[in-house]
Amino acid sequence: MPTDPPVNVPSMNRPDRSGVIVATSQGSLRGIVRRETCSDGMSDALYGLSIDLFTADDGAILSGCCTLAR
Fold first, then answer.
1. Which member of 17, 30, 60, 70 lies 3.0 to 4.6 Å from 11 by CB, making a disulfide possible if both were Cys?
2. Segment 13-48, tens digit of pLDDT
3. CA 57 from chain center: how many Å?
4. Phi-psi category of 41—alpha, beta or left, where left has phi over 0 and alpha has psi -120 to 50?
């Protein structure tokens, strides 16, 4: 769970991308959120956002897709 609200860092030259920084009790995460068609690879569903998260502690990269409900 986040210990502080996530920090949004807009791209200076790409309106379809944004950085995000999240501090958690187990370390911090930094990532890039992109507005693009994305598939989770497990279903036929298509999503409108993709993310690549980088963990600060071990340098692992986690990737995924999502959509925002209205």
1. 17
2. 999 999 999 888 888 889 999 999 998 888 888 899
3. 17
4. left
Residue 10 one-letter amino acid? P
Alpha carbons 58 and 70: distance in angstroms, whole number: 35
pTM: 0.77
Residue type, 69: A
If one compares 69 and 28, the residue with the highest pLDDT of the two is 28
CB neighbours of residue 14 within 10 Å: 11
Question: For residues 53 and 59, what is the distance between their CA atoms, to the nearest angstrom?
Answer: 10
